[in-house]
Amino acid sequence: MIQLLNTILIGVTAGGIYSLMAISIVLVWRSTRVINFAQAGMALLSTYFGYTAMMQLNSFWIALLVAMIGGAIFAALVEIILMRLLVKHSSTGPIASVAPIIATLGLLGVIRAVVSMIWGGQNVRITGPLSNDGFSVSGETLVFSPLKLLILVSVIFLMLLLSILFQKTNIGLALRASAYAPEIARLSGVKVDLVRTLGWALAGAAGAVAGIFQTVNGNGTLSPDSIDFSLLLVSGFIAAVIGGLESLVGAVIGGLLLGILISFVLMYISSALFFIAPFVILLTVLFIRPQGIIGTKAGRRA
Amino acid sequence: MSLNVSNLTVHHGAICAINQVSFAVPTGKLAAIIGSNGAGKTTLLRTLSGLNEPTSGTMNWMGESILGGKPEKLVRRGISHVSEGKSVVPELTVRENLELGAIWRRDKNELHESLDQVVSIFPRLGERIQQRSDTLSGGERQMLAIGRAIMAKPKLLLLDEPSLGLAPLVIQQIFQAIRELTTSMQLTVLLVEQNAIGALNIADLGIVLNLGKVVAVDNAQALIDDPAVRAAYLGY
């Protein structure tokens, strides 16, 4: 019973972080039709911003805020400087649709290199605001800790904020209209270029939170070639694909599902499956429901 | 004359879609633009709303040039374009589509008036206000597309084939609504139509396009009575 509870709670916490990453991938995809392989690199950079703030001011929450703002600004700059230029210069031919995507792969490499130039290649440490020692329940110690609870609550809070933004505000309406029908959005007076940049900025902020939480939820250390961030990218993608790539709700469901599934596989089958399980889950979903869990059969409209 | 187009030329790559087109529409008048496929009707509307860029010529709206204006800017100057093929966002609800039409407006109090106005013209939209717009029928979607444009409080309304794919009875309803809107809101309207006779019947004047050129401009009734126009475009 305790083990089952443990498995679910660990899965939900990890899944929440995957969801954030998936949200950032979906936001970029919806606003510019680019699969952003640099998302993990951007999350890494943002986490280092947070680390620097933590060194200076010694507050986890300020570090988180700095990472979010830094991540948002960096993502916006990438969209304005790199992506717009690329789209302009490669508007025809077979390269047009893949150039931005390949560029994000290049960007991923550049970010990692620059991060290790600035902060060095060694491990640095970000300490969470609460203990990661498990709760005790009737004499037994859970793996689920105050820190994990805090992460879970924060992730839920952020998702609520995002869903209010998307469903209840004009900015959200502009974001959705621009994603589904950019021409109609423009004819209605939406500055679609600006909205696209905003989509990237939101993605940058969501990725930053995922990066910080992934770090403190692990062993608290951070390095430019951290395996945690590779895993975050892969998991984020898988969660986004499970969710149908178009839908923010799908991204959340995909992330949670992935987190819980991996947690069960590791606990009840073998922890040796750590790196295989996500991919098997991805392939299974692609075979059974290629449109994702809540994608429609008709696929997306142009 | 509130809309003045002169010597307008538009290219799609090497192809000349609009060739030296000139015409004018007075304030508050409904102009039907008719002509066969490929005559350049859609291109003309897209150029007026800023979606396409002209090669040369001038376009003036209320005495000021709209040349080089972007759609998101021109809508703020009173030019609303309902593009071809039921221009609504299917993933959004009816209400959201209408709110989208007014998204740039800051006068939040008047927004309710516009919404009431649209719902009173098209009561069906009121009944389905919370539904996703991809659950609407073709006619309802067209009503929503026009409603979205009305939410922007336009002065110049550009309508691209609102009758496309609709049943005759629905077409009649839509045309009647367009006529009433023109009069009640004192709109200037450009109505592009394949359904030439239906469009001319509600229009004040008609502009006949052929292969990118204006071949006739006259008041609508005169065009209906013109044997050459009847033979070429009205089919009887």
CATH topology of chain A: ABC transporter involved in vitamin B12 uptake, BtuC
What is the CATH topology descriptor of chain B? Rossmann fold
What is the alpha-carbon Rg of chain B in Å?
17 Å
The greatest interface between two protein chains, and residues involved on each side, is: A-B, 18 and 24 residues
- Let me know the number of strands of chain A: 4
N- to C-terminal separation of chain A? 48 Å
The coarse overall form of chain A would be globular
- Total domains of chain B: 1
Biggest sheet, spatial arrangement of strands of chain B: 6-7-8-3-9-10
CATH class label of chain B: Alpha Beta
| Helical content of chain B (DSSP H or I, runs of 4+) | 25-40%
Could you walk me through the main structural features you see in this protein, from its secondary elements to its overall organization?
The complex is a heterodimer of chains A (302) and B (236). By secondary structure, chain A is an all-alpha fold. Chain A contains 11 helices and 4 strands. In chain A, a hairpin with a 2-residue loop joins strand 2 (136-137) and strand 3. The longest helix of chain A is centred in the first third of the chain and has 31 residues, at 2-32. Chain A is globular. The model of chain A is unreliable at 297-302 (pLDDT under 50). By secondary structure, chain B is an alpha/beta fold. Chain B has a single domain, classed as Rossmann fold (3-Layer(aba) Sandwich), CATH 3.40.50.300. Chain B is 38% helix and 26% strand. Chain B is built from 10 helices and 10 strands. In chain B, strands 6-7-8-3-9-10 form a 6-stranded mixed beta sheet, with helices on both faces. Chain B has a 4-stranded antiparallel beta sheet with strand order 2-1-4-5, with helices on one face.
